[in-house]
Design brief:
This protein is mainly beta. It has a domain at 405-487: Sandwich (Immunoglobulin-like). It is built from 2 helices and 38 strands. The protein has helices spanning 2-19, 334-341; strands at 30-32, 35-39, 45-50, 56-58, 62-63, 66-71, 84-87, 93-94, 107-110, 131-134, 140-141, 154-157, 163-164, 177-179, 186-187, 199-202, 208-209, 222-225, 234-235, 238-243, 246-251, 258-260, 267-268, 281-283, 290-291, 304-306, 313-314, 326-330, 346-349, 377-378, 405-409, 412-416, 425-431, 441-445, 449-452, 460-471, 474-477, 484-487. The strands form 9 sheets. Strands 1, 2, 3, 5, 6 and 8 form a 6-stranded mixed β-sheet that branches. The protein has a 6-stranded mixed β-sheet with strand order 22-24-26-28-29-30, with helices on one face. Strands 4-7-9-10-12 form a 5-stranded parallel β-sheet, with no helix packed on it. Strand 5 and strand 6 form a beta hairpin. The radius of gyration is 28 Å and the shape is elongated.
Length: 489
C-alpha cells in the first residue's frame, strides 16, 4: 500500500515538473484529418495541433466548414517534417511558440490578415529558416520571435508594423540587411543583437531605439535613415538623398561606413552600438540629449563623431575602445567638457548653430602650440593650463547648491535640491565612494531634481551637485554641494 501511494505521489511530481516545460495538451479538441482544433466563441476555428507529415504546407482557410482564424499556442511545435508554410489571409493571430523548434522549416509566408503573433517565440529555434514574408496588418514583432534563427537571411515586412520588440531577431547571424517600414516607431532592447547585418534602413518614424539594439553586429557598416523629405549633402564620399519613399545612397569615391540618426530620436541607449567595429562615421541630430553607457563601446573603427550642444549627458565608457576617435563639438558644450575629462581628442566647431545630420559644419586644421581656436583639433594632452583661450569664462559664477536630499527606490535614487537663482542647469555626480573615484558617473539636468537609475541594490552611493551658468558659448560652474549618501533599495 505504501509503495502504491509513493508511486502515485512520484507520478504527480513528474507531471507538475513537466507542465512548465512541455506545451499544454488541448482539452476538448476536435480533429479533422491531420489537424486538431477547437471551435471559438465566434464559431471560427483555432488550430491547436498538427500530426501530418507534409513538407510543404498551405494551412487551410476552412476546417469542417468553419473559417480558420487563429493558430494556437504551440500549434505546430516541433513539427520536424515542415519545410515550407503558407498562412492564409483569414488567419488573424498566431499564438506563442506556434512553430517553436520546427528545425527543418525554411520558408514562411504570413498572410495579410495576421495582426498579432501572441506573446512571442513563434519561430524561435527554427535554425534552418531562411525566408520570412510578413503581411501588412501585423502591428508588432514580439519578444524572441526569431531568436536564434541562425540561417534567416531574407525578411520582408509589411507597412502596418509599428514595433519590433526586444530580442526579436537576436542572433540571426545570416541576416545581412533588413528594411524597416516607415510605420515603425519602436526598436526594442537587443532587437538585432548579434545579427550579421551589413546594412539597415531606419525610417524617420522611429522615435525609440532601446539599449543594445544593434550590439555585436560586427559586420554593420551602413545604416541609412529616411530623412523626412530633406536632402542630405555629401558626407565624405557618401551622398544621401530622399526620393519619394526610398532612401537612395550613391557611393562617391571610396565607400565609408556612415550612420545618421533621425531627428526623432532623443536618446542613444545603453550599449546600442556595442562592438559595431566597422562603423567609422556617426552623425546625430540636435534632438538627442543623452548618450548612455557603452553606447559605442568597442567601435574601434569610429574616427569622427559630431555631438550637438543639445547633448547634456554622456554615460561611462560610451566611447571606450574608440582609440582613433575625434569628437566634434561646440565651445563650452557638455561634449567638450566630456572630451577633456575623458582624455578624448576633440575638435571645436566654429558655427554656433547646432548640426543637422551632417559633418559639414566643421573643418579640421593643424593645431598650433600657442592657442586653441574653433576648427582646431585638440589632442588629449591639451588642457586648461596650455590653452587658456578656450576656457575663458565671461559669465558670473552661480551660487553653491544647497539642501541636497536623496530618496531611495529599488535600484534608484531620487535627487532633489534647492534651486539656484540664474542657473542654466545643474551637474550631478555620483559614485560608490566619497572620493568619487569608483564607478563615477555624471549627468546634466535643467531642473533641480533627477532620478538616478540602474544602481545596485543594497549599495551605498555618494552624490554631489553643482550649478552652472552658460551664455554666449561660455560656461561657468558653481561650487559643489555638500556630499550626501544613501543606500539604494
Amino acid at each position: 500500500m505504501t509503495k502504491k501511494i509513493l508511486s502515485i505521489f512520484t507520478t504527480l511530481i513528474m507531471s507538475v515538473s513537466l507542465a512548465g516545460v512541455l506545451p499544454a495538451v488541448t482539452v476538448g479538441a476536435e480533429t479533422s484529418g491531420d489537424y486538431e482544433y477547437t471551435v471559438l466563441d465566434d464559431d471560427t476555428v483555432e488550430i491547436t495541433g498538427y500530426t501530418g507529415s507534409e513538407t510543404e504546407l498551405e494551412i487551410p482557410s476552412e476546417i469542417d466548414g468553419k473559417s480558420v482564424t487563429s493558430i494556437g499556442e504551440y500549434g505546430f511545435y516541433c513539427c520536424g517534417n515542415l519545410e515550407s508554410v503558407k498562412i492564409p489571409d483569414n488567419v488573424t493571430s498566431i499564438g506563442y511558440g506556434a512553430f517553436l523548434s520546427c528545425e527543418n522549416l525554411t520558408n514562411v509566408t504570413i498572410g495579410n490578415g495576421v495582426t498579432t503573433l501572441g506573446r512571442g517565440r513563434a519561430f524561435q529555434g527554427c535554425t534552418k529558416l531562411t525566408s520570412i514574408i510578413i503581411g501588412n496588418k501585423l502591428k508588432s514583432i514580439p519578444e524572441e520571435t526569431f531568436l536564434n534563427c541562425t540561417n534567416l537571411s531574407y525578411v520582408e515586412i509589411g507597412n502596418g508594423l509599428t514595433r519590433i520588440e526586444k530580442l526579436a531577431f537576436e542572433n540571426c547571424s545570416s541576416l545581412k540587411n533588413i528594411t524597416i517600414p516607415n510605420s515603425v516607431i519602436y526598436i526594442g532592447q537587443s532587437a538585432f543583437f548579434g545579427c550579421g547585418l551589413t546594412s539597415i534602413t531606419i525610417p524617420y518614424s522611429v522615435t525609440n531605439i532601446e539599449s543594445i539594439a544593434f550590439a555585436s553586429c560586427s559586420s554593420l557598416s551602413e545604416i541609412n535613415v529616411d530623412s523626412n523629405n530633406k536632402n542630405y549633402s555629401s558626407q565624405d564620399g557618401v551622398l544621401f538623398n530622399y526620393n519619394k519613399t526610398k532612401l537612395l545612397q550613391y557611393p562617391i569615391g571610396k565607400t565609408l561606413a556612415t550612420y545618421t540618426i533621425p531627428n526623432s530620436v532623443t536618446s542613444i541607449g545603453y550599449s546600442t552600438f556595442h562592438s559595431c567595429n566597422n562603423l567609422t562615421k556617426i552623425s546625430i541630430p540636435n534632438s538627442v540629449t543623452s548618450i548612455e553607457e557603452y553606447a559605442f563601446w568597442g567601435c574601434n573603427s569610429l574616427t569622427s563623431f559630431t555631438i550637438p550642444d543639445s547633448v547634456i549627458s554622456i554615460g561611462d565608457s560610451a566611447f571606450s575602445g574608440c582609440d582613433d576617435l575625434t569628437i566634434k563639438c561646440y565651445q563650452g558644450s557638455y561634449a567638450e567638457q566630456y572630451a577633456k575629462e575623458n582624455n578624448i581628442k576633440y575638435e571645436l566647431i566654429v558655427d554656433n548653430n547646432p548640426p543637422h545630420n551632417t559633418d559639414n559644419n566643421s573643418n579640421t586644421q593643424t593645431p598650433n602650440n600657442n592657442s586653441t581656436k574653433p576648427n582646431q583639433t585638440v589632442s588629449p594632452t591639451n588642457n586648461k593650463k596650455t590653452n587658456p583661450s578656450i576656457n575663458k569664462v565671461t559669465v558670473p559664477k552661480p551660487a553653491k547648491v544647497k539642501s541636497v536630499k536623496l530618496t531611495a527606490k529599488k535600484k534608484k535614487l531620487n535627487v532633489k535640491w534647492k534651486k539656484v537663482s540664474g542657473a542654466t542647469g545643474y551637474e550631478v555626480t555620483y559614485a560608490t565612494n566619497n572620493k568619487f573615484t569608483k564607478n563615477k558617473k555624471t549627468v546634466k539636468v535643467k531642473k533641480n531634481k533627477v532620478t538616478i537609475t540602474r544602481l545596485k541594490s543594497k549599495k551605498w552611493y555618494f552624490v554631489k551637485v553643482r550649478a552652472y551658468k552658460k551664455a554666449n558659448g561660455d560656461i561657468n560652474y558653481g561650487k559643489w554641494s555638500k556630499v550626501v549618501k544613501k543606500k539604494a533599495k
